[in-house]
Amino acid sequence: MPNANFLLGHPWRWYGLALVVVALDVATKVWAVDRFMQGPALQIIPGLLQFTYAENYGAAFSFLADAGGWQRWLLGVIALGFSVVVCIWLWRLPAGKRWESCALALILGGALGNLWDRILLGYVRDFISVYYGNWHFPVFNVADMGISIGAVMLIIEMLFFVEKGREKAKNNAEV
């Protein structure tokens, strides 16, 4: 029987969180395809939030969507390479860097969730639509939320916690 500390210790728990994001992303995309691909959108908050169905053949905000198909493989290679970098980054982080590890795990899960679609289908399935009047934010999915939340967490880390970590390391070195 595997040691529980090995499975739940750093960095395995963060890879587990990334897999949870992938599983939620894939499950919600399957649900959205079944529910909204042929049917009408579902108003969650009228005038603000609805579930619908969209296919994104490009990158964020449909960048390169009309490129003719080659972008599928380029974006897939970029996502795969990025995922490898994040896996290594997570592996090398000290166990105490939980905020940064959680952020990276969310980003990794989101990247892998969208990579799954891109490799299998050639496009990414989106279904969450935020809008107000004539303004529409690009339709997105759970993977995109993981990437966005993780990125905001990394920005918060850089703005508010990196300097504190440096000061603490400096004070420990002086002692």
From TrEMBL:
Its EC number is 3.4.23.36. The keyword Membrane applies. Pfam families: Peptidase_A8. It catalyses: Release of signal peptides from bacterial membrane prolipoproteins. Hydrolyzes -Xaa-Yaa-Zaa-|-(S,diacylglyceryl)Cys-, in which Xaa is hydrophobic (preferably Leu), and Yaa (Ala or Ser) and Zaa (Gly or Ala) have small, neutral side chains. Pathway: Protein modification; lipoprotein biosynthesis (signal peptide cleavage). It is found in: Cell membrane. The chain crosses the membrane at residues 70-91, 103-125, 145-162. The active site is at D126, D144. Coiled coil: none annotated. It is a multi-pass membrane protein. Keywords: Aspartyl protease, Cell membrane, Hydrolase, Membrane, Protease, Transmembrane, Transmembrane helix. It is an enzyme of class 3 (hydrolase). It comes from the Bacteria. Its main location: membrane. GO terms for molecular function: aspartic-type endopeptidase activity. This protein specifically catalyzes the removal of signal peptides from prolipoproteins. PANTHER family: LIPOPROTEIN SIGNAL PEPTIDASE. Belongs to the peptidase A8 family. This is Lipoprotein signal peptidase. The lineage of its organism: Bacteria, Pseudomonadati, Pseudomonadota, Gammaproteobacteria, Cellvibrionales. The gene is lspA.
